[in-house]
Amino acid sequence: QVQLVESGGGLVQPGGSLRLSCAASGDTLDYYAIAWFRQAPGKERERVSCSNQYGRTWYDDPVKGRFTISRRNAENAVYLQTNSLKPGDTGVYYCAAQLYGSCSGPAGYDYWGQGTQVTVSS
Length: 122
Description:
The chain is mainly beta and 122 residues long. The chain is built from no helices and eleven strands. The strands form two sheets. Strands 2, 4, 5, 6, 9, 10 and 11 form a seven-stranded mixed beta sheet that branches. Strands 1-3-8-7 form a four-stranded antiparallel beta sheet, with no helix packed on it. Strand 7 and strand 8 (77-82) form a beta hairpin.
């Protein structure tokens, strides 16, 4: 069983950047797909990016070209670099893990962190 802890959120002006971290314990992330989700107030949770165990990555259209997911297996952590942030990026960002996952869809993630708040506002 893996435990996930997100950090790195905060208040940032439009156009700014944040680096979100997802630190894991309890198991190695080597065999997990790791995804980042976000949930804005009054909206459903949506997946924005994913990295599978082979290092392949996937991005939701609204964040393509602005967000970058990366894995540091030696640190047992996954990061989400968010650039050119917009007010529409505001929400609670969660990382989630799926053992042997392929990033084929937004369902089936077994482990979740508690979330980190990202607020984009001037």
